[in-house]
């Protein structure tokens, strides 16, 4: 699977989406060290894949490169950036029962805004699932990078290219 490219200078603001979520009791926050264990544990179970390695890496950055969505003081979603590699967005996950409410959009936009503030003009969405591609295309006009290899992921133990 290939990566996607996002033009950060054309990315919309997350403010309106976050305001709508806030009105329904959902908050988007940059993760803090005291919540590290809680968010890592959440990342193991909130999606079909275990994202705890990437979340752990995001917590090693300063500042922490992970946002969390909360509802009733509990995590319902998260998004990381600069976890797998520099200038990479992901992973991101939202509880199945909380999807289609704008949480993923808010997490994505807030993360990409942070990346732009870091000085990047473009961001890479690393190895998105086939079902997530239309979401990224719609939210931030992300485009597939025409690449036949697994890119940075060829360095993973389980990939032999």
Overview of the molecule:
- With 161 residues, this protein is of the alpha+beta class.
- Helix content is 32%, strand content 22%.
- The protein has five helices and seven strands, in the order βαβααβββαβαβ.
- It has helices at residues 15-23, 36-45, 52-60, 103-117, 133-140; strands at residues 4-7, 26-30, 66-71, 74-81, 88-94, 122-125, 143-144.
- The two termini are 13 Å apart.
Considering the chains and any ligands shown, give keywords for the structure:
161 residues, alpha+beta, seven-stranded mixed beta sheet, 5 helices, 7 strands, globular
Quickly describe the structure:
With 161 residues, this protein is α+β, with helices and mostly antiparallel strands.
Count of distinct strands = 7
Radius of gyration: 15 Å
Given the structure, what is the number of helices?
A: 5
Helix residue percentage: 25-40%
Topology as H/E string? EHEHHEEEHEHE
